[in-house]
Predict the 3D structure of the following.
Amino acid sequence: MRFPDERLSLTNPYSRQLRCDGRGRTSDDASDEAACPGPLIVVSNRQPYRHEYDDADAEDDTERSVTVDEPTGGLTAGLDPVCKRTDGTWIAWGDGSADFDVTDDRNCVSVPPDSEGYTLHRLDLSEAAVDSYYRGFSNRVLWPICHGFSDLLEDRPTDFEWYRTVNERFASAVADHATDDSVVWIQDYHFALAPRLVRDSIPPSATVAQFWHIPWPAPETFRDCPAGVDVLEGVLGNDLLGFHVDRYVENFLECVQRYVPNATVDRDQRLVRYEGEPTTVVATPMGVDAASFDRRARAADRRNPSALLTDAVSEETVVGLGVDRLDYTKGIPERLAALERFFERNPDWCGEFTFVQKATPSRTEIPTYERYGEFVRNEVERINGRFESGDWKPIVYTEEYVEPDDLCALYRQADVMIVSPIIDGMNLVAQEYLAASVDCDGALLLSDRTGAYERLGSHALGIDPTDTDAFARRIAESLSMPRHERRRRMNTLRHRVFENDIGSWMDSQFDWIQSIHEGSSSEAIDQDPDTDPDSPEYTPRV
Ligand code: ADP
Ligand code: F6P
């Protein structure tokens, strides 16, 4: 197993007790976070834990050992702590080679491994289903459309029908678990049709909510979405629909207004009525488990620095860092172009500054992604070939798995973090970096096209990832920024990340769900209690 027990307990800073009725928190709980008003059922495509056989050559399964890993991505990283706090059931696609050898006869397993946890219900999807639903309609249609890459849209013949079939399967799994007061919390664009199917198959007193983790595009872009009206009608099956930022809420409401003529849209109340049923639409930006990143980063101090760094750079080297899935939305080639320009214009930094890019291959069966990965690797090689000298390389690139503790060590050691998506619904990596910057001496370069920019943009160094010259100047600026200025910015940024962490996001979700449960959805809830810290150095209570 990759994760020791210590890691599992560290990610859960809250005390919790299990109850046999599936409601995680009890009246004995000391914490004052908002509680889920009923037994929670989370639905997502990606599962939080994957069981894999790690010895493909063994004769039979009994000889093979099973490892458990946590798939890379903001959604699972964010929601696992939520589920640990609330208990309940998580329904997801089981894509690991050993997944169904560790589940019971209902395809359920308790996670996290080796600790008392919540129930993971895995769905076994055929290769044809996965190819069309996940690699097809989800990631060749909705992903590019929602991120404004209409030119990458591929509308293959059977993808949408499979997407519907898989949404039906998830909806039926939800119905198996749902009770009168269940809260069904559906995640992301893989399930645009499921909310209506779920709504029609569970008791009316149960609540159906969805969080859309990626952007929602303007109507002019959404117009190109195949089966766009089905998508909108499906999503309007929710009682509550959440996005990260106001802009996506506005875009969604405009799309409904334009493409679902039978719906009534109240832009002020952010309320849609369709077929007599209301959907409340809210902007609730997601945060990270800041206390856990802070703690792990502090612990990293007592250990050796990240092996990745000790192997690649000397102690004096100034370190820049990028951590991303290899996805065309993440702006990695643009970042490399800016780094190349930076070294061209600032030769004195050659030998002094190294950029570490930690990349994770993603959706590689889709040729666009495969080509993207290849392009990134080639660019790194080319730029390194151009500037490297002796033992020094401008870019250290790795696709190797990095343990969470090591990732925190890397975050802590990075003098500059570069987050440069062309577009990103939120971007949790930026927030993780800030939470782990316990020495308050790092700087964040942040694309102004991320959801995270809305909250962090005033104190990060904003960049337009496509403006190579200005981007390169920003890198230079970050490296020469006086220490007190880094500290000043970092304090405020850390404060914002801690004040708006995953716990507060979850509270806002459950506050909304509760108000909808009670039929008072129009009540306003303060969603952005940003205030700058008074203290000269922000140290969270952890
Ligand atoms: P996305 O959801 O598009 O992948 P986010 O930045 O919101 O992007 O979330 C990414 C999550 O996955 C973060 O929790 C981050 O720590 C993790 N992650 C991303 N890339 C890597 C990587 N190369 N190595 C380890 N973890 C990664
Ligand atoms: O956050 C957006 C998202 O698509 C998540 O839904 C997903 O878990 C993550 O990115 C990683 O992508 P994938 O699950 O396709 O590997």
Summary: The two ends are 27 Å apart (CA to CA).
